[in-house]
Amino acid sequence: MGARKHNRAEERKAAKKVTSFAKLNNVPTSPRKMRLVADLVRGMNVEMALHVLQYSSKEASIRVYKLLRSAIANWEAKNAGQRIEDSNLYIKEIFVDSGRMLKRVQPAPQGRAHRVRKRSNHVTLILDSKKTNKE
After folding, report:
1. With b meaning 16 or more CB within 10 Å and e meaning fewer, what string describes 96-110?
2. Antiparallel, parallel or unpaired: β 113-129 and 89-107
3. Environment class of 61 (CB within 10 Å of its CB; exposed 0-12, middle 13-18, buried 19+)
4. Is the domain defined by 22-129 classed in CATH 3.40.980.20?
5. What does the H/E/C string look like for the chain?
C-alpha cells in the first residue's frame, strides 16, 4: 500500500473513533420504504427524532428507532461524563443503501413464471453535537 493511501486510512480510523454511529445490516424491507423514514428524521434533534419515530405509523420506523437508541448508547460510551440534553445531539447523517436481493419465482398464467425480488437494505446513522463555544 502506498504512503498516501496508508495515511488516508489512518485518518479515517482516527475519525471513526471520534464519531458516534450505528449500523443496521440486511433489514428485510425495501430501501425505498426505509428512505421515507430516514428522510423524516435527517438533521433532527435526537429527542425530537425519538418522539417522531416512536409515534410514526410506518413499520420501518421501529427499526430506525432502535438504531437511533443504539447510536445514542455508543455516544454515551465514548463521552462518559456528558449528558445528552447538554450536548445538543442531532442526526448528522442517515443513509440507506440497498442490500442483498432474494430472487424468488411466482407462478404466472399460461405456465409462465414471474421473478419476485425481495429487497433488503443497510442503514447507517451518524450522530454529532451542536456545541456552541460561549467562552
Report:
1. beebeeeeeeeeeee
2. antiparallel
3. buried
4. no
5. CCHHHHHHHHHHHHHHHHCEEEEEEEECCCHHHHHHHHHHHCCCEHHHHHHHHHCCCCCHHHHHHHHHHHHHHHHHHHCCCCCHHHHCEEEEEEEEEEEEEEEEEEECHHHCEEEEEEEEEEEEEEEEECCCCCC
Please say whether the beta carbons of 60 and 41 come within 8 A: no
Distance from C-alpha of 29 to C-alpha of 18, rounded to nearest angstrom: 31
Output the tens digit of pLDDT for each of the chain's 135 residues.
Answer: 689 999 999 999 988 888 899 999 999 999 999 999 999 999 999 999 999 999 999 999 999 999 999 999 999 998 887 888 888 899 999 999 999 999 999 999 999 999 999 999 999 999 998 875 444
At CA 59, angle to CA 55 and CA 64, rounded to 5? Answer: 75
Question: Sign of torsion, CA 81 15 94 23?
Answer: negative
Q: Supply the pTM of this predicted model.
A: 0.85
